[in-house]
Specification:
The chain is α/β, with parallel strands linked by helices. The chain contains 12 helices and 12 strands. The strands form 4 sheets. The chain has a 4-stranded parallel sheet, with helices on one face. A 3-stranded antiparallel sheet has the order 6-7-8, with no helix packed on it. The longest helix has 21 residues.
Length: 345
C-alpha cells in the first residue's frame, strides 16, 4: 500500500475485491480514480472485536459455539433467502435500508445517483463493507462510471474522450467462475470428456455427480453456490452425501455408482425453472451466469432443503454395477429404493 503514497492510482472494478482495497489506497494516494462498470448493493459490515466475556463464554459453555452458528444460519435463511426468491416486501425493505446506508455517508446527489444499482437487490452479490462509501467522498477520490476505451502510457481514456492521468493501475476485475474444473482433464464412460459434457453449460445432480462419470463426486459443483448463506454448510452436506455413497460401494460390493441421466436431467429442469424466477435472473451479466446467460453457479432453494435432499444417497437414482460382474459383461442395474445406504449425520 505504501507504493501508492503520493501517486495517481486507478482501480478498475468496484466489487468484492475492490471495496477491500479502495479504502486503504484512498488514504494514501495523491489521486484515486475508481472505474465502475455497474453499482452494487451494499450493507454495513459492523465488525467489532469479541469481548473478554464472549471469549470466556464461547470457551467454557458447552454447545454455545454451535448455538451461535445455528443462530447466524437461521437469520441468514430467514432474511437473505427471500431476497433471492424476490420477496417483494423484504426486497423493498432491504433496498431502502441499503440506500439509506449509502445516503447517510454520501451527500453529493450526483454521486448518489451513480451509486444506486439498476437491478433488484440480490441479483448480484450483496457486498458487506465498512469504509467504502467513506473513501468515495474524500476530496482526492473520483468515481468514473464511463466505459474504458483504452489505456495509454500514463492515462486511462474513457469512451467519452476524458483522459484520466494515472501512475498505477490496479485491476480488481474479479475472476472466472465458468467453466468449472477448466484446468482438470476428466474422462468418463467411453472416454467422454467432462468438458464436452459441459460444453453448453455446467450441470450435475445436486452439484455432486454427472451422468456417465462413474464414482465421480464433487464438492462445490455446479449450482451449489449461495447468495444468502454459508458455503461451508453446503459442503458439509455434500461430504455427508459422498460418504454415504462410499459406504454403499463398500457394503454392497459395487464396482461403481453412476447417476442416471434421466434423474440428472429431471433435477436440472426443475432447478433451471426455479432459477428463472430468482433475483439473479433479473440482473444482467454477472459471475453467477455463463456466457450464454444460464445460471450455473447458484442454488435457488434454501440450504435446509439442500441438507434434506442430500442427507443420504438415494440409490434408485443411480446405475450400480457389482464388483463380481466381469468388466466385459458389465450390465447396469438399479438398486431398489427399499434398501438405501445408511448415512450418519
Amino acid at each position: 500500500m505504501d507504493a501508492a503514497a503520493g501517486r495517481r492510482v486507478a482501480v478498475v472494478g468496484n466489487a468484492a475485491s475492490a471495496i477491500q482495497l479502495i479504502p486503504e489506497i484512498a488514504s494514501r494516494a495523491k489521486r484515486l480514480s475508481v472505474f465502475q462498470r455497474s453499482a452494487n448493493w451494499m450493507v454495513p459490515r459492523g465488525d467489532r472485536p469479541y469481548t473478554r466475556r464472549e471469549h470466556w463464554l464461547l470457551a467454557h459453555v458447552p454447545g454455545l459455539p454451535r448455538l451461535a452458528r445455528a443462530w447466524r444460519w437461521v437469520n441468514l435463511e430467514l432474511w437473505l433467502y427471500p431476497l433471492m426468491r424476490r420477496n417483494r416486501v423484504l426486497s423493498r425493505l432491504q433496498e431502502r435500508v441499503s440506500r439509506r446506508y449509502m445516503e447517510s455517508l454520501v451527500t453529493d446527489p450526483a454521486l448518489r445517483k451513480v451509486l444506486v444499482p439498476d437491478y433488484p437487490i440480490g441479483g448480484k452479490r450483496i457486498l458487506i463493507t465498512d469504509g467504502y462509501y467513506e473513501s468515495l467522498v474524500r476530496e482526492n477520490v473520483e468515481v468514473v462510471p464511463n466505459e474504458i476505451d483504452r489505456v495509454t502510457e500514463d492515462a486511462i481514456v474513457t469512451r467519452d474522450g476524458t483522459v484520466h492521468p494515472v501512475d498505477a493501475i490496479i485491476l480488481a476485475t474479479g475472476f472466472r467462475t465458468n467453466p468449472f474444473l477448466a484446468h482438470v482433464a476428466i474422462e468418463g464412460v467411453g472416454g467422454r470428456a467432462l468438458a464436452t459434457e459441459w460444453a453448453e453449460g455446467a450441470h450435475a445432480y445436486y452439484g455432486l455427480a454427472v451422468a456417465g462419470f462413474p464414482n465421480f463426486f464433487m464438492l462445490y459443483g455446479p449450482n451449489t453456490n449461495l447468495g444468502h448463506n454459508s458455503i461451508i454448510f453446503m459442503m458439509e452436506a455434500q461430504i455427508r452425501y459422498i460418504l454415504s455413497a462410499l459406504r454403499a460401494l463398500e457394503e454392497r460390493d459395487l464396482r461403481y455408482l453412476d447417476v442416471r441421466r434421466d434423474a440428472m436431467d429431471a433435477f436440472n429442469d426443475e432447478l433451471q425453472a426455479a432459477l428463472r424466477t430468482s433475483a439473479w435472473a433479473a440482473a444482467g451479466e454477472s459471475w453467477y451466469k455463463d456466457a450464454a446467460g444460464r445460471i450455473t453457479n447458484n442454488w435457488p432453494w434454501s440450504t435446509l432443503w439442500y441438507w434434506w435432499k442430500t442427507r443420504r444417497v438415494e440409490l434408485d437414482q443411480y446405475r450400480a454395477v457389482a464388483r463380481h460382474v466381469p468388466v466385459e459383461a458389465e450390465r447396469a442395474r438399479t438398486v431398489p429404493r427399499t434398501a438405501p445406504a445408511r448415512a450418519t449425520a
